[in-house]
Amino acid sequence: MDLPGKPISHIFELEEIEDMISNGTYESLFEVHRDAGIPQKNPYGDLKKVIDSVPVFGFNSGRYDINICKNELFTAIGAKNITSVIKNPSYMCISTRNYKFLDMTNYVPAGTSYDKYLKTYIGGCKCEDSSRCICGLRKGVFPYEYITSFDVLNETKLPPKSAFYSDLRESDIKDEDYGFVKFAWEHHEMKTLKDLLVWCNNLDVEPFVSAIQAQRELFKKFDLDMFVDGVSLPGLSEKVMYQSCFKGLKKPKKVPGAPVEFPLDRFNGYEAQDTKAGRDFNMSITHLNQLLRKQLYTCYHCFCKLDVKNASADRINNSIGHIDGNIMMSCIACNVARKDMSPAAFRYQKMIEHNSDKLVYSIDKEEKEIYHKMKANIAGGPSIIFNRFAKRNETTIRGGKLCKKIIGYFVDFVTRRRSFELS
C-alpha cells in the first residue's frame, strides 16, 4: 500500500491480506485499510460549505414572510442556484450559496407560539411592572401604518395613541401597551421615531437569537448542529433516537456446541456445485473440521450451535470457489441469507436483529417491562409492528398462541393500498 507522504515500509500482496482476513486477524479489508493509517477524506470542502452558508432565521416566516419577499430578496442579493425544501404551503428551508433561510417553527412542536418558544428557552419577563419592563423580554409596539414615508421617521415626538391603530386588525392598542411605549421613549431617551423603530426591532431580534442559541446548545449535547444536521425537529429527534438505540448493542451469547464432524455428503455437494459453476475447488474436510473446532461449533454470524443438520461451509468471497482460506463455518440459514453481503456487514445485521427489542424501548428503558407485555399479548395489525418479523407457525401473539396466517396492510404516501401475505 502506497500512503501519500510516507515512505513505503512494506508491500502487502492481495493473498497476504486475504489470509489475514481468513485467519481472523482482521474482520474485513476496511479494518486493514484503517490500521494501515491511510488518510481519510479531507473534510475541508464540506466544512467550507457550512461556514460559507449564513443561516437567516424567522418565526413562521416560511409560510408568510419568505413567500412575500423571496423574489425581490433573491434579486437584490444576486442569489443563484436556489434550492428549497417545501412542506406545503410553507418553506422549511431555502438555500443559496451564501445563505440558508430557516423557519424556526419547524424546530418546535406544532402549535408553539413565539411567546411560548421564548419562555421555554430563556424565560419570560420578570419585571414587577410589565408596563415599565427593562429586561428586554417584552415585545415592543410600533405605529407601522403611521409611517407613510421615510421622513416620518425623523419626527421628534411620540405619536398619539390613535396613530397606533391597525387597519389590518381593525383595533387600537391597549392603554397598557401605549403606557409601555411612553415609558420606553423616556427611559431610553429616544429622539426620533427612528429610535423607536430600532428599539422595537431589537426587542424582536435579541430575545429570539438568545432562544435559538439556547436551543442549539441543547442539541450540541447530542453532537448535533441544529442547522447542519436537520431542517426540522422530527429530523433531529430521529438522529437522537438512532444515537441512543445503537449504543451498547450486545452480541448474541456464544455457547459452544457439541463436537461434530462435518457431513461428507454435504462436502461432496460443494465440490459438485463448484464443478457445475466452473469454479476452482480446493477444500479439504480436515480444514472444515478444524474451523468447526476453532469456532467452538458455532455459526460465525449468529453464534447459534452447529450440528450435522445445519453446519455449512460459507465462502468469504462468493466470486471464487470453495477453497481452504476462503471458508468460514456458518449455519445454513445465514449462508443462504448473506448472499454477497460482506461477512462483517452481515454479522452486524445479525447483531441488530438480536437487539431488535432494545431498538424499540431504548429511549425510555423504564418502559421495557410494559413493552414486552404488550408484545406478548397484542393482537391484530399492531402485532405486526411489535413483532417486526412475523412467520407462520412460529410467531406468537395472544399470550403464546401460534399465528397460522399473517397478512399486513399499509397505505403509502399516495394512499394506494398494498398488502403482503406470508405463507
UniProtKB/TrEMBL annotation:
It comes from the Eukaryota. PANTHER family: DNA-DIRECTED DNA POLYMERASE, PROTEIN CBG10425. This is Unnamed protein product. It comes from Phytophthora lilii.
